[in-house]
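> call design_seq(struct)
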């Protein structure tokens, strides 16, 4: 992998991230992303740099029912130092049972709760970024999860958004509730559910949360596309670490850049087209190992193709063919047609990636915004609202 020197940067005076008994030397977290942060992608990322790498979101109900897919999601490689799992749920009893399972069966070293997902199938059931609006439900879930995790000395954190929309912000109150409930850290994505991934992340909200919670770690998420963005977020907001989502899609080497930047080193990864092709093929091979099914693995790699080759000179017909491969042999043949010496395209390969979507009215349960507390029929329906599938 080609690395180049950038203008020297002062070392960030940012200590290792402490999460209960865990110490994360490089305070960088790979955000859980459904269909992306499986063990194959986590391995690629950690080969480049330090940090903590969170598995795909898994639903509490699916985990308690031990569905094969949920058990695959929470599986970790033997050499993953911190086995990190993110849970989604809307029922305190089910979430508590899932945390208890993870702790009693020694399946996780760190557990995160998802209160940030903006996907309609999640929010219309009262989950994800819709849930903190109901303070009684939010408090019950967090307190139950912290209590169960604490029985095994497993640190529990939460990840959330600013709120449902600009008229229904929840992050400051939710942050205080989570802190008072005993969470190890709080991560904030500086967007509302209504924004989805559009527009610009509000780093000033992250700074306000950092100021409001001086006694626990606060992590920032949103619009970190480069190591320089991460450094700027830390300096502008005072956060204790950063959470990386879409910025690493097709760029697992970003974690190498992040570690170098946090250590004040002036090197950055600038792969030529041949080196990117090698990375794509290795990713595909790891996916085959992960799924044990070459056809499924190659179907999964397709979504990554556009991210890997963003900004590079690759013909449209070849891009299309690579996005339709069904075997490692087909992928290898297509990659061999690339101009391996084509250089790193600079800024064209960086910046926003992934689907941003557009602002939209969040899908919510009936009368969800009428009160901060659950009403009678919402309380009755909440346990039935648990999704029975994994992933976001």
């Amino acid at each position: 992998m080609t690395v180049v020197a950038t203008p020297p940067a002062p070392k960030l005076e940012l200590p290792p991230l402490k999460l209960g008994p865990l110490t994360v030397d490089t305070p960088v977290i790979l955000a859980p992303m459904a269909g992306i942060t499986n063990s194959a992608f986590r391995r690629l990322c950690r080969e480049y740099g330090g940090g903590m790498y969170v598995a795909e979101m898994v639903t509490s109900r699916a985990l308690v029912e031990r569905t094969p897919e949920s058990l695959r999601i929470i599986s970790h490689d033997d050499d993953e130092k911190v086995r990190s799992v993110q849970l989604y749920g809307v029922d305190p009893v089910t979430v508590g049972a899932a945390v208890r399972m993870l702790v009693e069966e020694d399946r996780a070293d760190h557990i995160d709760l998802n209160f940030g997902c903006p996907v309609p199938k999640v929010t219309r059931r009262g989950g994800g970024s819709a849930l903190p609006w109901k303070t009684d439900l939010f408090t019950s879930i967090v307190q139950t999860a912290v209590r169960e995790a604490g029985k095994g000395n497993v640190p529990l954190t939460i990840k959330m958004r600013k709120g449902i929309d600009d008229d229904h912000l929840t992050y400051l109150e939710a942050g205080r509730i989570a802190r008072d409930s005993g969470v190890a850290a709080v991560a904030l994505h500086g967007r509302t559910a209504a924004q989805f991934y559009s527009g610009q992340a509000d780093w000033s909200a992250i700074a306000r949360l950092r100021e409001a919670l001086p006694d626990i770690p606060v992590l920032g998420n949103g619009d970190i596309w480069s190591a320089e963005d991460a450094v700027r977020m830390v300096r502008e907001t005072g956060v204790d670490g950063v959470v990386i989502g879409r910025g690493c899609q097709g760029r697992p080497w970003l974690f190498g850049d992040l570690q170098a930047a946090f250590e004040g080193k002036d090197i950055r990864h600038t792969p030529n087209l041949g080196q990117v092709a090698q990375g794509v093929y290795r990713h595909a091979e790891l996916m085959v190992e992960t799924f044990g099914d070459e056809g499924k693995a190659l179907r999964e790699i397709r979504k990554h193709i556009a991210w890997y080759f963003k900004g590079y000179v690759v013909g449209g017909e070849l891009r299309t063919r690579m996005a339709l491969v069904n075997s490692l042999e087909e992928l290898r043949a297509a990659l061999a047609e690339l101009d391996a010496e084509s250089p790193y395209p600079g800024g064209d390969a960086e910046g926003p990636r992934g689907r941003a979507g557009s602002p939209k009215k969040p899908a919510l349960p009936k009368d969800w915004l009428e009160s901060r507390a659950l009403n009678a029929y919402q309380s009755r329906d909440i346990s039935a609202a648990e999704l029975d599938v994994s992933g976001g």
